[in-house]
Design goal:
The structure holds two protein chains of two kinds. Chain A has 14 helices and no strands. Chain A is mostly helical. Chain A starts with a helix and ends in a 12-residue tail after the last helix. The chains are: A mainly alpha, B mainly alpha.
């Protein structure tokens, strides 16, 4: 009796969730369009270069965090995403600076190189499961950063690569702002299409149960390789554009802590939803830089945000409306949102 | 010959310190299922606390070492009660809470002591003459302290009541609860021991090398390498992998650059783990 009741419950909640999803299909793109238009109109009112710089960095990290989330949906925990970003950035910067190739050729090249390396790494890593995957990829990422430091001849080592060719022939922030806004929209649209295509659904199936997925004829290894390759491509081009925007590169901006931060951006927003990494990145990149008058106390604000999300919002910030509903509305069956 | 003897002493010393930190780290992982990414920062804070007591307040160096260890062990209990307890067994939450602790502690050190490198005075200056070799006393002393700590910790886990309780909790949590073991008390003791050992290592390493605000990152990586490579739940595995990695770290920089040594070590670790994900002597961990 208990089992059938539970099944009925699950069926009703899943029906409800598909209903909600159908409703969201109209609402969500509309919200995204409004946000993009608002962002596009922003430089008309604000001429502050620092604020534009902050927003450009946010756009770059949104791409990186969203691509990380795409990999996570396949059930892999890559703690080496900073390293893949470094591969894209250094490939693009070195080919543009040392070989003199045009920037708009080297940026896709950076993405492709990161994609190829990610694909080749994913194949042996496909035998590892959650915890061990995270650890081995962490060591792999550390190794890549150390390798960049060792290859002093091309990458200038720990001192950092300087005088990277510029992306656009101007130092004004506004053209850059529009370039990165468009770039982010294109990348997010591509990731969105991937997520809700057959590939994305297959990846989610593998993450839920790799045994069931492989028993219905899904090649688990191939799809995990595909997921990491796609994620690495996007994080690679994000790193490459970062290199040509920032003009200098240092290995420390892609080290273990950077990988952790990308993970945190995705987690704080919530990895259960596509908008999670976008919200998380926006919150954690923009808030500290807007509070720059606090100077050395900014990290405490960031830590406070992390702690609030940790204790109160289990599903990240995107779980907040659901959490409020479950607290103040009437309790719904199957809503597992609790503080602890 | 001088080079060989100093490389030998350094290898043993670095291995001993890595093992001391990694054992505390492994304690937390076994007993609580918590992967403490903030372990390196706790190690760093201990060094700075010792510096504060010893150099700023002018307290005797052994007493200040003792004070630093006690304070950090107490901090460990607080962290267990209010932070670690809510993150066990979930990698996402472990990363969030560890990053929050790293941010708070690292910036507290930066704001109070400053981000410049400091150096603790040596705990025992001088040289020991042994046949034709001479060894620095402080390095030998650090190695001896590390060895004594390891031996007493192994004795503690095998013979005392709380040590046995820890083993029970790490083997079977539900079973241990049914036998009336207070899991949270055991976790608090494990946390205090882990943080205390990291504190001792931090003070001793701070006296041998310089203190800086980012010295914990390297130590965290080493602790992770040791625990994962040796195998979760195995003290012998940690000893073996500690000697291996300590030797690589002490010997390879003699022949090439330090970064090259790290690359070689990491490549070896990744290849071993691809074929044997549970490490040398590990059990499956979920």
């Amino acid at each position: 009796m208990g089992i059938t009741e539970k099944q009925a419950e699950i069926a009703s909640t899943s029906e409800k969730s598909t209903e909600i999803a159908r409703k969201k299909n109209f609402v969500q793109p509309l919200i995204y369009c409004v946000i993009v238009i608002a962002l596009a109109l922003l430089p008309l009112g604000i001429k502050n270069p620092f604020l534009l710089h902050v927003l450009i960095l946010t756009f770059i990290y949104v791409i990186a965090a969203s691509s990380l989330r795409f990999v996570i949906t396949s059930g892999q925990y890559p703690l080496a995403h900073g390293a893949y970003m470094a591969i894209g950035a250094y490939t693009s910067a070195c080919t543009a600076k040392l070989l003199g190739w045009p920037v708009f050729l080297t940026i896709p090249l950076g993405g492709v190189v990161a994609m190829i390396i990610g694909g080749f790494i994913a194949y042996p890593f496909a035998r590892l499961r959650a915890f061990y995957y995270a650890m081995v990829s962490l060591f792999f990422g550390l190794g890549v950063i150390q390798l960049i430091i060792v290859l002093t001849k091309w990458t200038s080592g720990a001192g950092g690569l300087v005088n990277i060719p510029h992306l656009l022939p101007t130092t004004d922030k506004t053209p850059y702002y529009y370039f990165f806004l468009g770039f982010m929209v294109i990348c997010l649209f591509a990731l969105w299409r991937f997520e809700f295509s057959r590939i994305g659904l297959t990846l989610k199936a593998i993450a839920q149960s790799h045994m069931v997925a492989s028993s219905v004829g899904i090649s688990e290894v191939w799809y995990r390789v595909l997921a990491l390759a796609i994620g690495c491509f996007f994080v690679g081009i994000a790193g490459a554009t970062y290199a040509h925007y920032n003009f200098t590169l240092s290995p420390t901006s892609f080290d273990m802590m950077a990988s952790f931060w990308l993970f945190i951006y995705a987690l704080i927003g919530g990895i259960s939803s596509f908008s999670g990494p976008i919200i998380g990145t926006a919150l954690l990149v923009i808030t500290p830089l807007l509070l720059s008058s606090l100077k050395q106390f900014i990290p405490y604000v960031t830590a406070g945000i992390l702690l609030v999300v940790f204790y109160v919002m289990r599903d990240g910030i995107v779980g907040l409306p659901k959490l409020i509903m479950s607290r103040f509305g009437k309790p719904k069956p199957g809503s597992g949102n609790r503080a602890f | 010959m001088e080079l060989v003897s100093s490389a030998f002493v350094n290898a043993l010393l670095i291995s001993a310190m890595y093992i001391v930190v990694a054992l505390g780290f492994a304690f937390l992982l076994n007993v609580m299922g918590f992967l403490n990414f903030s372990h390196g920062v706790i190690y760093m804070v201990a060094g700075y606390l010792c510096y504060q007591f010893e150099v700023i307040y002018g307290i005797n160096q052994w007493i200040s070492l003792f004070l630093a260890v006690i304070i950090i062990a107490g901090l460990g209990i607080v962290l267990e009660r209010y932070f670690f307890r809510y993150a066990t067994g979930n990698l996402d939450r472990m990363i969030i809470i560890s990053l929050a602790i790293i941010l708070i502690l690292q910036n507290s050190v930066n704001n109070t002591v400053g981000y410049l490198a400091r150096s603790l005075p040596s705990f025992a200056p001088g040289l020991i003459q042994f046949a034709t070799f001479s060894f620095p006393v402080d390095k030998v002393l650090t190695f001896v302290i590390g060895g004594v700590l390891l031996a007493s910790l192994i004795w503690f886990t095998r013979n005392t009541k709380y040590g046995l309780q820890m083993q029970a909790v790490s083997q079977n949590l539900e079973g241990a609860k049914l036998q009336g073991i207070s899991v949270h008390r055991v976790a608090a003791i494990a946390c205090a021991i882990a943080c205390g050992m990291a504190a001792i290592a931090g003070c001793l390493m701070g006296a041998l090398f310089n203190l800086n605000a980012f010295m914990g990152d390297n130590m965290l990586v080493k602790a992770l390498e040791l625990v994962i490579l040796g195998g979760i739940g195995s003290i012998g595995g940690i000893l073996l992998s500690g000697l291996l990695i300590g030797t690589i770290d002490a010997v390879v920089p003699l022949y090439s650059s330090g970064a090259m040594g790290t690359v070689i070590g990491l490549a070896i670790i990744v290849v071993i783990l691809l074929f044997r994900p549970q490490g040398f002597f590990g059990r499956e961990f979920s």
